[in-house]
Each structure stands twice: as structure tokens, then as C-alpha cells.
């Protein structure tokens, strides 16, 4: 049998060739101006692409039918995208507002959980003339429920209905344009456990149809657009259209007028601030924030804004894992090698990257200060009572991190 013997052969081959051509184009974006021309940065950009190639057809085909929904782990320790933050987990399921769905699970001990119904994805960000972010992003939140709002049994089990007729208890409405359930869970202490969940369409009574040529052709087109969009949009889209979260023209400092006390993004349940950093081998950056109540997260990202290696390296901090100095100031040191301070943010050897702040379910004021210093003078620039760690202490930190992250993902 040869190509052309089947009635769909030519269409399938053409679609595959087109996908492969788009994949090549996506690879060319590795060499964009935003990505430094260093071997490690170029390799990391290809890694960013291959990680998302690994999930392209899960999103485009295997979980795409909203009549047979599945929760897809969108970001993991080996897959980064979308400005993900190390101490979050992200899951999504494609849905259709014409159906009703049931999510069942058991609430874990993670400090924060948000389940959001996402609506249509417009070409432009609402209220602006800015293009929406690439698929599967850009859709508009319609409604949500936080973990503390879920009614659970004594053992934490719950049922959450999505769509259908209004009902009491755990229920989120849908609209004709509802297309996705997006689930984010955020962790503070390493011992916190994840919420287990599964989703099904109510009334599902037959097996999922086997995808045919038309479904594969559509999936190849979606996957190609997803990968080219990911390589095209990051990091520039977040710079241009983030509404003041980041100013890439000023490195090593949060935007001067950015104070993380905004009440926007309420449906998404977080306030964000973002900084682009750039360090030479002999430099370090001290980042300060006055300590405040609430649940906040600092997380390091690469050039393409995906989270850094949070399984093995100290690239994120939360209140439960952060040492606060005696003067009530939280201080982090971004450095290429271990400076011996408790709150070290590891660059992993990269010269450029991103630092993201998230403030969850709180509008407590957080003003940021940064100081670029000589790496050799870091300890001289810090208070005398700054929490330090020796090699054994750092090893314990990394071991706790390793086991804590694996707990979150059931690895």
C-alpha cells in the first residue's frame, strides 16, 4: 500500500507536512532578539519548544473533544509555559457550554485553589486593540470558585457541577461560549497535599469515537498554531500587553509605579508583578519587600517566562519557606552561585530571566526594592542577622523541595 491508495491519504500527508513546516518556523524563534546568544540560552529555548511539542497533541486531539473531557496537567516539572509559577499546579479540561459536567475529588491541604470557567477567546484582549495570547490562552474568565468556598464532606470529598440547571451547593454556570475549565492550585509548605480531581460529562453513555482523518487534520493545524504561537508570543506578549505588570526596558527592577495592591483580576484570584533581571557573572541582585500578611509567591523564570527548574533548585519562595529579617523585610538574593543565605534564588547559570510575584486572594500592599551589587559583597550588603545556611542546610532545603514537589504531582 502506498500514499494515495486511501481516500484521505493526500489530505493527511499535506496536513502533516504543513505541521512540520510550522514546527521548523517555531524553532527559528529560538534565535529572536529577546533570547541571549549564549549556548545555554539557545539550548533552553529549544527545550521550551520540545516540552510543549510533547503536550501539543494532548491539547489538540487527545483531550480536545468536550463531550469526553479529561483533566490535562498543563504545566509540570518537565513542561513549562505561560508564565507558570513554580508553586502552582495547572490543569485544564475542554468543555462545551451546551453540556453539563461533574468534577469529583478530595480537597488536599494546598493553601489556595481556584476553579474557573473560561469563555470565548476573542481576537483582541477585551477593551483594547491588543491581540489575544496564543491558544489555549486568551479566553475570558466567566466565573470561578475558590477552594475555601467548596462544600466538602468530613474527609474532604466533594462534587462540583459545571453547567446545566442552577442548583444549590457546588455549582458553576456556563454560557454558550464556555470552552474550558482551568484549575490552579498553589502551595505554601512542602508538606501540603494536592486536590485530586476527575471530570466527566453528565449523561456520557458511550465510548469516545475514534478520531478520523478530519479530526487529525484539525489537530495538526491547532498544534502547529499552538507551537508557533508559544515561540512567537513569549516573552514579548507579556511585556507589551500585561497592563503595567512588567517594563522590560528597565532590568533588575520592578516597574517604578507598580505596587502589588490592585484589586484587578479578581476572578483569576491573584495580583501580579513582574521583573526582568540581567546579571553578569560577578553580580548579584538583592530583592526586598516589606513582610506582610497573606499568601504570596516569588518565582524565577527563564527568558521565555516559563518557570525554572523547581524540582532540583531553589527558584521559588512562599511565606512558609522564607526567612524574614529582624527589621521585618523579606530579602532575596538572585545569584549565579550559592551565597550562603537562606533566601537564595538560583539563576541556574543563565544571564537573563524573569522574577514573578503573585499575591493570592489578598490586596495587601507590597512595595519592591532592588539593589544590584557585587557578588563578592553580598553579605556586606545584608543585615548582620540575615538567615544563613551552610552546605548541609542547603542540602536539606533541596531535599525538602524535591520531595515536596513530587508530592504535589504524585511522582
UniProtKB/TrEMBL annotation:
State the source organism's domain of life: Bacteria
Q: Which residues form the DUF1214 domain?
A: 93-180
Instruction: Quote the InterPro entries the UniProt record gives.
Output: DUF1214
The name this protein carries in UniProt is DUF1214 domain-containing protein
Species this protein is from: Mycobacterium yunnanensis
